[in-house]
């Protein structure tokens, strides 16, 4: 069942490239349907939300109202089992503390000619957080999306969560309460994204929409991008584990399967220089698959997308393979982990050493679990405080510093044929030019 | 010709909202055409580039070759007039110095329980810079896009620029030489974006594409987003000037028209509490329009999208109007500029005081002139060093710190029904769980 690729085999590069390039998510052709749903919400506001929610979620919002009251969130929090409450509290505090270190500094300075430059960071005015309904409705995701926004200083945080047939995950409402969210609506799908982007009678629009969702939600986010900001469109989850001969095959197998259980399209890859570890891990995977609750999903993910890459020299070969895969999660389960770190450029998050299972990072490590998938770690970063702020640049000239910059400005404006640009400097320095 | 809106009039809010919401760019329906061009480049590589370039640019790339040699760039630099050379040099140095201050710091620390956290910033492996051909081909844009990439440490910078009928702006090639770009191809349009994203026989793919372009280029960037990173899709340019009675109407008129000359869809807005200044500025606009080289374009922009907003109390009313407009450029031509600054949240760049015409920021101020348009300053920032880097988060636990985080991790994993996640912690802490 396990796919083994050996770097010494002549077709290794070709088969590795196929692994790297392989598209795992199914393309969904929902563009036109989403377009007309967004148009309906723009035209008919709450009425359209009520209709779509009736049709897709079998819920009568005209009866329940759109909003979930803060009291309901608080009641959900109060109703949680004490150990879950404590765990969420630990997660909240660790995420909050870690993200505080990401608050960027403003800058203002005068340069050699007396020109003042700088920049100023300000929080976004408002953010909409999409939370999926049903089984993929995770309280940890509420914290991971909401806490950095709170740390950034976003004054208005709005959550939307569909409640199909009235069903809602109390842990999600409790997490919203814990994160300080007070404005929540029981809507989902493309219609919820449209409401957040354009507003309705009940819902004021936001300036950015974040959070995971199905193909309809992803397409709706794509379509409203520009009207509002959006976060990355998340693909299926991934882990790459780099392990030496000393790594524990049972631990590694558990880590590979923790990723695989998310989704049949998830991908787990082991890179090792130990044939014995490779064999033992593959066996441990099979043994654990047989007993794990989400074994059917994990088995399909492992069979379709999993792989063991066997290399001759871990320190020399692993970093290049990792950089090509650019995985969302990277585990370095090897003694030489720290030495390998500088050679690794493309990864969403790195979990260092034998005692750092990726799952801790999903919940209580403190760093964010919203990370770039599908090789996007080559050009983008995990969610953080900066995603909830924007930078305004500042320039201030005096009569004297303007005089010193006038000639090159006017020369360049003239070279670009923009005489109006030239003139705006000339009138200040030469009188009428 | 000038549109005056007075904040004391009963329909002010309604007319102001129309100004804020008005779409200025024309929608272009080029989706399908762009999709098939991208597919052609993916299938047939260089051959497709040669065909499209023959058709759209009337150039035979099979004869000239795709690349513009570094020697050609150097020759262009050597051939520039001395004052233009000096101006570009000044611009380069000031942009470089300012952007150096944006290099982000790495972080690594151990927290109270001995867990190590942190993040590391690394430059992107490669970036493609799109430069339009013809009249909108600006050397300043080459510097503004390339210098932050160089400062970030991006090792491979690729430029594409169409050369219709062989025509190319020597100042653009010279700016590329100055910025240290050595890999340049004479291609443009959607085909150039496809080549950068997917690669051809001659062109290796990049991981991010930046730079302005027409509707075809913008749509191509949208379609390849995800395969590669992209910068913002730029809309028409904008300026808002906030001026008090002491501002000079001739200077203000020149600033408003410097924006308007870019494009008939550009927007220039004056906000003032001085009826006399409002009148005088409108008159000065008409006078300058009559004599400026790009007067036809500027006149249409001013007539269709320009406005003078007359308020009763500048300090109280202007910041709210500015925040709603979220302009790309904001000039604070008033004595109380510094005092007004904290109340302004949404602006791409702020030019402070009477002696800071926006045009200086376009060229030699040092800050970046690639800024969010069409109200995107509500949720995004101007181009900077961070756009050419990505952040990888780090987590490292010891046996002891893992033990302390095991319980909350396992509780949350269980609450989310992810027993594989739970297991990856359990095997490390409880033996077989």
Automatic annotation (TrEMBL), chains A, B:
One of its GO terms (molecular function) is histidinol dehydrogenase activity. It comes from Rhodomicrobium udaipurense. Catalyzes the sequential NAD-dependent oxidations of L-histidinol to L-histidinaldehyde and then to L-histidine. Its EC number is 1.1.1.23. Zn(2+) binds at residues 259, 262, 362, 421. One of its GO terms (biological process) is L-histidine biosynthetic process. PROSITE patterns: HISOL_DEHYDROGENASE (PS00611). Belongs to the histidinol dehydrogenase family. It comes from the Bacteria. The gene is hisD. This is Histidinol dehydrogenase. Binds 1 zinc ion per subunit.
